[in-house]
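Serine/threonine-protein phosphatase PGAM5, mitochondrial: structure, please.
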Amino acid sequence: RREPVALINLKKKNEETGEEELASRLDHCKAKATRHIFLIRHSQYNLDGRADKDRTLTPLGREQAELTGHRLASLGLKFDQIIHSSMTRATETTEIISKHLPGVKKISTDLLREGAPIEPDPPVSHWKPEAVQYYEDGARIEAAFRNFIHRADVKQEEDSYEIFVCHANVIRYIVCRALQFPPEGWLRLSLNNGSITHLVIRPNGRVALRTLGDTGFMPPDKITRT
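Here you go.
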């Protein structure tokens, strides 16, 4: 519903000027800027924690977040905001990253919390959540995709650079949806902790994947996928 033709009422088109007026109104509704989306997977965390508040970053996880923050800062980009999952491991990862990006506002959201986006195809034997999870989590993660992954607003004049700190399942699903690949294939992708995935959304709505799960900026002994 962000295609320019969907933003105008064709029934109100002036019959006298016809296509000329339509073209003018379409131009007025076209996006002008490119959005750069940086999807960051949280760092390694304590898997033994029973509740979310107990699943804090490990010492290695904190190192990974420092490395990710340093990498993002080294890009020399003017980041607009950091939107992060409200889960503890994502919040802690964001706090460490943000130290390297002073002045960039942080926004917490429940939409980006980890979950089961859609039943994977082919299925896997080691991970079988209850069917109800796909309905509850799937609707929320799809809402996150629709809310955050889209072409720039028509009022946006300059290219934007945004960071989203969340979770592997969420990022993998978003990548499949953004590239118009079958979303059921999300589990075929693998992401390291603290990795950077870079999506580019052009004004015409076309999406390109610049990097997927990049951790080349980390020493080999600091890379994990847990």
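Notes: Residues 1-30 form one domain.
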